């Protein structure tokens, strides 16, 4: 999870750099490429997953809701920053376009000091000691055996479940309608008015 987030942040910084240099290069195509790279990035689902996995059970719901809050806050800050009086002027819009790289840079610098998610370490890597160390680092000293037991139960449940690749998921008829719904919802979210709000 953590490595994927780090790679994703590098992608966002590259995209921000491409968009920020578009005016100097006099190339609107660079804006299109940069926006496409931003769209391809996996920030939102990865953030939800990582934050949910590193949070203690009693704070997990709250921690997962913070990502939606910061996503909305980012949109609001972007809308405000895009005003002509701030970064929306003719000379400063490249800075506005490149500003999406700032949060990625902050996360790229700070994330290496965080441990990998405990469920990932235990379920996918089989590293029980690493899991315990990550839990102590994240949640402090104390009795965390109940959480580790929950992860072990989930691992036992997952052992009987076949994990599908993306291609297998697309080909699987049992998941077709769920996949259609997710694609339609994701594709039409820009039409729901959230940007106007």
TrEMBL record:
<feature type="signal peptide">
    <location>
        <begin position="1"/>
        <end position="27"/>
    </location>
</feature>
<feature type="transmembrane region" description="Helical">
    <location>
        <begin position="177"/>
        <end position="196"/>
    </location>
</feature>
<dbReference type="GO" id="GO:0046323">
    <property type="term" value="P:D-glucose import"/>
</dbReference>
<dbReference type="GO" id="GO:0070837">
    <property type="term" value="P:dehydroascorbic acid transport"/>
</dbReference>
<keyword id="KW-0732">Signal</keyword>
<keyword id="KW-1133">Transmembrane helix</keyword>
<dbReference type="GO" id="GO:0055056">
    <property type="term" value="F:D-glucose transmembrane transporter activity"/>
</dbReference>
<dbReference type="Pfam" id="PF00083">
    <property type="entry name" value="Sugar_tr"/>
</dbReference>
<dbReference type="InterPro" id="IPR005828">
    <property type="entry name" value="MFS_sugar_transport-like"/>
</dbReference>
<protein>
    <submittedName>
        <fullName>GTR5 protein</fullName>
    </submittedName>
</protein>
<feature type="domain" description="Major facilitator superfamily (MFS) profile">
    <location>
        <begin position="1"/>
        <end position="197"/>
    </location>
</feature>
<keyword id="KW-0472">Membrane</keyword>
<dbReference type="InterPro" id="IPR036259">
    <property type="entry name" value="MFS_trans_sf"/>
</dbReference>
<dbReference type="GO" id="GO:0005886">
    <property type="term" value="C:plasma membrane"/>
</dbReference>
<dbReference type="InterPro" id="IPR020846">
    <property type="entry name" value="MFS_dom"/>
</dbReference>
<keyword id="KW-0812">Transmembrane</keyword>
<dbReference type="InterPro" id="IPR045263">
    <property type="entry name" value="GLUT"/>
</dbReference>
<feature type="transmembrane region" description="Helical">
    <location>
        <begin position="92"/>
        <end position="114"/>
    </location>
</feature>
């Amino acid at each position: 999870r953590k490595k994927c987030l780090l790679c994703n942040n590098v992608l966002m910084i590259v995209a921000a750099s491409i968009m920020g240099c578009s005016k100097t290069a006099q190339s609107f195509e660079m804006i299109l490429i940069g926006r496409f790279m931003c769209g391809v990035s996996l920030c939102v689902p990865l953030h939800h997953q990582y934050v949910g996995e590193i949070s203690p059970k009693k704070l997990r719901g709250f921690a997962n809701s913070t990502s939606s809050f910061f996503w909305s806050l980012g949109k609001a800050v972007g809308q405000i920053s895009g005003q002509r009086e701030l970064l929306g002027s003719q000379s400063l819009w490249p800075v506005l376009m490149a500003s999406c790289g700032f949060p990625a840079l902050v996360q790229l610098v700070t994330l290496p000091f965080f441990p990998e998610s405990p469920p990932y370490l235990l379920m996918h890597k089989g590293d029980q000691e690493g899991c315990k160390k990550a839990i102590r680092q994240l949640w402090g000293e104390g009795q965390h055996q109940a959480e580790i037991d929950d992860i072990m139960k989930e691992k036992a449940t997952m052992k009987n479940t076949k994990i599908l690749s993306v291609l297998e998921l697309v080909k699987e008829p049992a998941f077709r309608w769920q996949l259609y719904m997710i694609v339609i919802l994701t594709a039409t979210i820009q039409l729901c008015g959230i940007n106007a709000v």
